[in-house]
Specification:
Elements: H1 5-36, H2 38-61, H3 64-87, E1 109-110, E2 113-114, H4 116-129, H5 132-138, H6 162-178, E3 187-191, H7 197-210, E4 215-219, H8 220-232, H9 241-247, E5 250-256, H10 263-278, E6 282-287, H11 294-298, H12 300-309, E7 311-315
Parallel strand pairs: 3-6, 3-7, 4-5, 5-6
Antiparallel strand pairs: 1-2
Length: 323
Amino acid sequence: MALENIHYDAIMREYDRRQRRGRRILEEHRAYAYQHIPRLKEIQDTIAAASARQIHSLLGDGPKEDADAYGQDIRSLSQERARLLAANGLPPDYLDMPYQCPVCRDTGYADGQKCACFRKLAADELCRQYGLEQILEKENFALFSFSCYSDKIKDSNTGKTPREHARFAVEKAQEFISQFGKSAQNLFIYGDTGVGKTFLSHCIAHELLKRAYSVLYLPAYDLFNLLAREVFSKDLESGGLLDHVLDCDLLIIDDLGTELTNTFVSSQLFSIVNERILRTRATVISTNLALETFPELYSTRTFSRILQDYRFINLIGEDIRTR
């Protein structure tokens, strides 16, 4: 599953919907304002005419002094408009086009690049394909239970119980969320099967999706299969998946190590890890692999990069699903 043409079209239809909604709201605002404050219509028409004359002057069709004079007129009229709006209990931007995203003005693109809001819509579309919305209703911090972890046995290496490890993991995950967007950070969550790594990843995704960040969740097996299709297949159904993988605010690679590891997978993993670090994009990786086997499977340089730029979180204990 990946972002195909049908999904891209759905995203562009959403932008069209936003633009039509903005135009409808603006028309309603203008109708109300012009009916109750007729002077505002005169001001708007005069500003439009003065702006057109100013542009002609700046393009060389008139003296520079004329352009400055038109600019002064526009500023004076704008101030009068603001006073009239305030006097009637209306906000200063009441007669401006309302945009859901002021950066791209609801087009999806800013400065020739995909806007952050486009990346968010694309990541949301991909998450819907994996049913992540339904999963996150059942797997989030509100439902995280420490009672699933034993407080009787202790890890021989750390001297801590599985419950203490779980409390530390949740604490660091919540720190990750609270600092998200303020500083570059990444998480590497490791431990045996069934100790809650995927659940914890879903908790992080749930919180950041609520805050309108673009979150892309992909099991490692699917991620590398889709990338292979994108690179090697002539029927490119993956829809520029690599762009979304590299650009989303948070990438979650779940269950690393369950895929068939080969040279292609190893090189792709390094490229993703390295490029997202360079772009200061956050990544969460979860794996059942023992740390000592990681360099053998994915290369020492990949593990070195992860060691340098990721916070490690270890979950231990019995398989929660059997408990």
